[in-house]
Amino acid sequence: MKTTEQPQKEAVMLSPEQLVAHWQGHRNLTRRVIEAFPEKEFFTFSIGGMRPFSIMVMELLGIAAPGLCEIATGKPATIDEEHPAVDLTKSQILELWDKTTEDINLYWEMLPIERFQETILAFGQYEGTVISSILYFVDNEIHHRGQGYVYLRSLGIEPPAFWER
Amino acid sequence: MKTTEQPQKEAVMLSPEQLVAHWQGHRNLTRRVIEAFPEKEFFTFSIGGMRPFSIMVMELLGIAAPGLCEIATGKPATIDEEHPAVDLTKSQILELWDKTTEDINLYWEMLPIERFQETILAFGQYEGTVISSILYFVDNEIHHRGQGYVYLRSLGIEPPAFWER
């Protein structure tokens, strides 16, 4: 029997633990999309004047850990808008991907639930709440990965299933 | 001064009202991507053997309102895996898009926060929680819309800015 000393816990739509697992699940799928690209085409293949998938992936790497680190620690982050040529191999980029996986988990632990509705300037310039910024990071990855799927299909390569994370 | 009769409200990472606004913001962007397609290419243009954007949009329409209606009301929904040819104009599809916008708002109002962590079988077959199913609906739209961006770029058409909702 409930007593007044034990208030009922409020229902939660989505917890921070569930959101970071959701994000990492998407990142795990993106990792397999990177793996599916042949080494050369990862850096060179393009449709309609768009960036090769490697450059999109470098953008994602430039957003995830630096953006979350800035949110969690206050350390300013910058976005490189120049999209420079990548002087790395696919396997080195996959290593950066895995390092980012660890970094996200580390910074996520530093983020109390009270912070998610706080207004911030992500990368010193994009105003929003912490949660809207993080959702943007995730959505931007899904968006570019979807473009990577078209590149793979156009190269005659079957991409990994979208629903497998 | 706080008293024990006024318990402090628990911090919320993301509210249901914010999530549906986020979803509708994405749907507003997808609407502008549909508008950006020339009538003919919307139904015929394809890369790498993928579906024309119109068929992807019909999939999104087949998921959003029927899927959320099933969640909110218990009325069973089915997914048409056949992807039949579309016997509609772009303007008729935009009308369905706007009708779905209203339907989502309607069904969302019927969904109390206590339901989001409930386990369900979406479309009678995909097991997950209500929240994971809804996130899947949104993510699937971002994924296919990203593919629509490649189609547009390949057609020499500038897509709407990703960050404008």
TrEMBL record, chains A, B:
Q: Does the keyword Lyase apply?
A: no
List the GO molecular function terms.
metal ion binding
Which residues make up the binding site for a divalent metal cation?
Answer: H144
By its UniProt entry, which InterPro entries does this protein fall under?
Answer: DinB (IPR007837), DinB/YfiT-like (IPR034660)
Q: Report keywords, A-Z.
A: Metal-binding
Family of the protein in this entry: Belongs to the DinB family.
Its name, as the record gives it, is Uncharacterized damage-inducible protein DinB (Forms a four-helix bundle)
Protein species of origin: Ulvibacter litoralis
